[in-house]
Amino acid sequence: MTVTPAEADVAALKAGADRAMARADFRGAAELLGQAAALAPRRLDLWLARAAALRAAGDLEAALSALDQALVADPRSFPALLMKASLMERLGAPHGAGAAYATALSLAPPDDAMPGQMRAAVDHARDVYARYQDELTQRLMESLSSAAAGPTARRLETFVDRLAGRRRVFHQDPVQFHYPGLPELEFHDRERFPCLEPLERATDDIRSELIQLLDEDAGGLEPYVNYPDNAPLDQWADLNRSAAWSAYHLWKDGEVIEDHARRCPKTMAAIAALPQPKTAGRSPAAMFSVLSPRTRIPPHTGIANTRLVLHLPLIVPEGCGFRVGSETRPWKVGEAWVFDDTVEHEAWNDSDEQRIILICDVWNPFLSEEERELIARAMAAMDAFSGAAPAGGL
């Protein structure tokens, strides 16, 4: 391979800079690296080395200028972004450094791929960025402290968390049906579901029926995940046909399970008051969901954003949790919530006992009665046209 005169000059200047650095002549090294970079301005390594030499010489402003040139060569250079944030911190610009660390961290390699010195710098970056997020959140919330209450306050809190980088933005990603124009809410406001309070008042009766049926008819439980052998399992491989996540169905695919329903008359009466979709072969759906000890339900999304999912916790040991999008909540016995399962969600039971909740589907409240009827008709027509059994759920 032929080396051009310019390349030879760059190599000689770089070698001289290395010798200068070895004898702690940081200014001399920076000067030689500047000459080399002038000959090869797209050489990221030269600008990074010049910035490091200037930093060692104590000229932080000039080091920042060198890093700006490094980022012209490669705007996504993680080492350049990390060093720039560090210099901003040393120059007494904590808020600017926090934002700069955020950019650098978004491009960080996996922890196990970093050398020790870089890993220590990244850990420091995370600490500084976390303080930046806390301070920004506090400042923003102070500016809004008397602005709103109720659902608006909850949405503003989420808005502020997203501004501060404390929450990712998750979108609806239904497996099958997406109806346009529906709000992307992780957990829906209770105020839109007056049916929750009567259901919660029935918690003791529902729980008593649950305990009795588990004692008398535990054989009625079936694996919640039940795919055929020829289906791609992906994240469901560990749970497919497993008793680790089981269901005792009361309504399934639009049909009441008569034998189960007879054992739970008070539960069925409470469910009957819910605004459940009614579509042949799909819904209503209602079940007791049993999650075994030390079991996790992997992140996934549901079938349709036209219906939401209601949880009523009945037996919840310590160590259980639930995440929808960017919000994580603990279940509390007798406190129901409604969430959009087309937003990525997951659940876990890290305890040594079963976790059991009542799960039902309900209409999305942002649909009009006309839309609900038309959606149900469209889905029934689709199922009839395809001739295939519905995948379950509306």
Summarize the structure.
This protein is an alpha+beta fold. The chain has helices at residues 5-22, 26-39, 44-57, 60-73, 78-90, 94-105, 116-143, 150-163, 196-201, 203-216, 258-263, 265-272, 369-386; strands at residues 222-223, 245-252, 255-256, 286-291, 295-300, 307-315, 320-324, 327-329, 337-339, 345-349, 355-363.
Q: Can you give a write-up of this model?
A:
This protein has two domains: 5-135, Tetratricopeptide repeat domain (Serine Threonine Protein Phosphatase 5, Tetratricopeptide repeat), CATH 1.25.40.10; 190-386, Jelly Rolls. Helix content is 45%, strand content 15%. The radius of gyration is 29 Å and the shape is elongated. By secondary structure, it is an alpha+beta fold. Helix 4 (60-73) packs antiparallel against helix 5 (78-90) and helix 6 crosses helix 7. The protein is built from 13 helices and eleven strands. It has helices at 5-22, 26-39, 44-57, 60-73, 78-90, 94-105, 116-143, 150-163, 196-201, 203-216, 258-263, 265-272, 369-386, and strands at residues 222-223, 245-252, 255-256, 286-291, 295-300, 307-315, 320-324, 327-329, 337-339, 345-349, 355-363.
Secondary structure: elements and pairs:
Layout: H1 5-22, H2 26-39, H3 44-57, H4 60-73, H5 78-90, H6 94-105, H7 116-143, H8 150-163, H9 196-201, H10 203-216, E1 222-223, E2 245-252, E3 255-256, H11 258-263, H12 265-272, E4 286-291, E5 295-300, E6 307-315, E7 320-324, E8 327-329, E9 337-339, E10 345-349, E11 355-363, H13 369-386
Antiparallel strand pairs: 1-2, 2-3, 2-4, 4-11, 5-10, 6-9, 6-11, 7-8, 7-10
Helix pairs in contact: 1-2, 2-3, 3-4, 4-5, 5-6, 6-7, 7-8
